[in-house]
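Sequence, please.
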């Protein structure tokens, strides 16, 4: 090799500028103009409307319901559905919105996910035209809030063995049972509830105020405090037969809804991770110990590098997931891979970020402990980490650990 050839840089390396610390792989260049616009719009909303109030709501254990009309005005409710007053945006746009909402707080993203993916989606996918016309426009406007009832006090991951039943009685169904850990339950106007019937698991639209239907909120939570979590109770609850979702039977119905929600979680977790990383990076640059910023210390840099690397990987995973969804090529196993990885890494990032902030990391002056506590719930809901591990394990080995 000649002296000249040794000095010649790899093509393009001398021209490339140092990437931003929060976008090491220039993911921004992989997004369309519309996708960037959606991301930036939601990011601005979170910065101006969510972040100034979310710490107080988290501390008080209250949901900022006053933000619902604003989220509806932005088109965030059911934004990935077509028609009926919904924005009809791409899966990637929806994912980017979830990322920015969860950078604010998991409770805010959970509200949007439940409204759009767990309450509106089953009506859109499995409802009658009359049901779609009646409910979807009002839900897109935030005038009607929905929730999704699948999990029960004694039945979580093994949802197929639910105990809630719906018995046909002339022109109505009679529901009996309890659903638990229901986001939005205490403020919902309608509940999409899954119950066992004589011909399999069916979904029902149940309106608040129906005799025999009541809710009770779950208190003393240390996670998702800025979110309403409830139990749904059905005691000989009579609902009209036309409130049953006619186009689906069996567990395919609720599981398809969960896949929609899990998709949003895979994106949302990257927002929580990014918020923790950015906070700890800025803190490390300004916090001085031993007459220098702690960002100079090797151990702190090691933590920041690990967070930055995992953030890039999670964002790339989420983006490819969205591209596959938009192309109609998405398989549920791929959602499990992304949900499992991105939530795991977001939780690790929150813990590493908290260690950089030291004692300051446990106060609500910074968002880290709030995100860390929230992510403990995200780690569990819409399929626990263990369940997603077994889903992936079955896919790659061909052997089921569930039976």
């Amino acid at each position: 090799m000649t002296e000249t050839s040794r000095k010649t840089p790899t093509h393009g390396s001398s021209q490339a500028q140092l990437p931003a610390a929060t976008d090491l792989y220039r993911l921004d260049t992989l997004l369309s103009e519309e996708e960037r616009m959606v991301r930036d719009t939601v990011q601005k909303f979170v910065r101006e409307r969510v972040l100034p109030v979310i710490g107080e709501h988290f501390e008080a254990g209250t949901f900022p319901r006053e933000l619902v009309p604003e989220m509806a005005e932005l088109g965030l409710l059911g934004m990935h559905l077509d028609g009926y007053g919904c924005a009809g945006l791409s899966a990637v746009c929806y994912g980017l919105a979830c990322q920015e909402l969860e950078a604010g707080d998991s409770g805010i993203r959970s509200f949007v996910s439940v409204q759009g993916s767990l309450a509106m989606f089953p009506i859109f996918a499995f409802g009658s035209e009359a049901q779609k016309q009646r409910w979807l426009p009002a839900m897109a406007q935030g005038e009607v809030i929905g929730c999704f009832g699948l999990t029960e006090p004694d039945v979580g991951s093994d949802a197929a063995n639910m105990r809630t039943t719906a018995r046909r009685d002339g022109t109505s169904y009679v529901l009996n049972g309890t659903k638990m850990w229901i986001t939005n339950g205490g403020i919902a106007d309608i509940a999409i509830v899954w119950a066992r019937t004589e011909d399999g698991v069916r979904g029902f639209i149940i309106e608040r105020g129906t005799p025999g239907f009541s809710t009770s909120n779950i208190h003393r939570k240390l996670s998702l405090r800025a979110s309403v979590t409830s139990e749904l109770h059905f005691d000989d609850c009579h609902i009209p037969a036309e409130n049953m979702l006619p186009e689906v039977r069996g567990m395919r119905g609720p599981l398809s809804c969960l896949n929609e929600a899990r998709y949003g979680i895979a994106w949302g977790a990257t927002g929580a991770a990014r918020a923790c990383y950015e906070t700890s990076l800025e803190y490390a640059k300004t916090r001085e110990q031993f007459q220098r910023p702690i960002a100079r210390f090797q151990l702190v840099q090691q933590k920041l590098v690990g967070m930055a690397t995992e953030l890039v990987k999670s964002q790339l995973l989420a983006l490819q997931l969205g591209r596959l969804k938009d192309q109609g090529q998405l398989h549920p196993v791929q959602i499990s891979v992304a949900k499992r990885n991105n939530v795991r890494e977001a939780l690790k990032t929150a813990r590493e970020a908290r260690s950089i902030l030291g004692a300051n990391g446990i106060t609500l002056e910074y968002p880290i402990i709030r995100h860390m506590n929230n992510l403990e719930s995200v780690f569990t809901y819409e399929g626990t980490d263990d369940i997603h591990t077994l889903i992936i394990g079955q896919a790659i080995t061909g052997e089921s650990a569930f039976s």
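The CA atoms of residues 55 and 364 lie 6 Å apart.
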